Amino acid sequence: MQKLKIFLKKEKPSGLIIAIIFIFFVGTIFFVSFKTTRNNKTFVESTTVVEAKTIKIKDNPTKLEIPSIKVSSNIESIGLTSSGAMDAPVGPSDTGWYNLGPIPGEIGSAVIDGHSGFKGGVSAVFDNLYKIKVGDKVNVINDKGITTTFIVRKISKYDPDANATEVFSSTDSKAHLNLITCTGDWNAITKSHTSRLVVFTDKI
């Protein structure tokens, strides 16, 4: 630009030269602007694609249905208690999905628990879970309205202090849903039932 200023002082350019300079100047601005806009657009589109691939939207379970024992309950999202045990739903009529594990339908062992033999003789969601049989179906509906169906494979009882690794994990690369509730006699000292009933199911 310094050389151009000196040139303009020494010699007055003709109208044609001025026109050429003007066209060149405007063209350069347009090219730079177009290239910048195009690059910005490409960046935005690329960022959107990356975000779509990396952000996972959870389809949280919202309802549990077990037709054979007439269970239809809302599902709460629960974690661990202060003592490190799986928490339980607040009220007797809801079930609780263990949110530190897989979502029902994902690879691994999802776990849902619920009350039975609730205090005061109040009816609870899993009062009749002991009546479930191998081959019965269990349905989980998520917050998108999609239903995932499981079939009962086996039913087991555990001591409260037993190793429950197989309840919360699996290594067969398949999707499972395991249901838990209390069973057995009430222990007034520990304020807990003497056993745990676990229903193992597999995704159909």
Report on this model:
There is one protein chain. By secondary structure, the chain is of the alpha+beta class. It folds into 2 domains: 2-54; 61-203, Sortase (Sortase, Chain: A, Beta Barrel). 26% of the residues lie in helices and 33% in strands. The protein is built from 3 helices and 8 strands; from the N terminus they run H-H-E-E-E-E-E-E-H-E-E. The chain has an 8-stranded mixed β-barrel. Strand 1 (61-66) and strand 2 form a beta hairpin. The longest helix has 40 residues, at 15-54. The relative contact order is 0.13.
Task: Compile the SSE list and pairings.
Blueprint: H1 2-10, H2 15-54, E1 61-66, E2 71-78, E3 95-98, E4 108-114, E5 137-142, E6 147-158, H3 165-168, E7 175-187, E8 192-203
Parallel strand pairs: 2-3, 4-7
Antiparallel strand pairs: 1-2, 1-5, 3-4, 5-6, 6-8, 7-8
Structural class: alpha+beta
**Number of helical stretches of at least 4 residues:** 3
CATH top-level class of the largest domain: Mainly Beta
Shape: globular
Stretches where pLDDT is under 50 for at least 5 consecutive residues are 1-14, 29-56
Quick summary:
The protein has 204 residues and is of the alpha+beta class. The chain is built from three helices and eight strands; from the N terminus they run H-H-E-E-E-E-E-E-H-E-E.
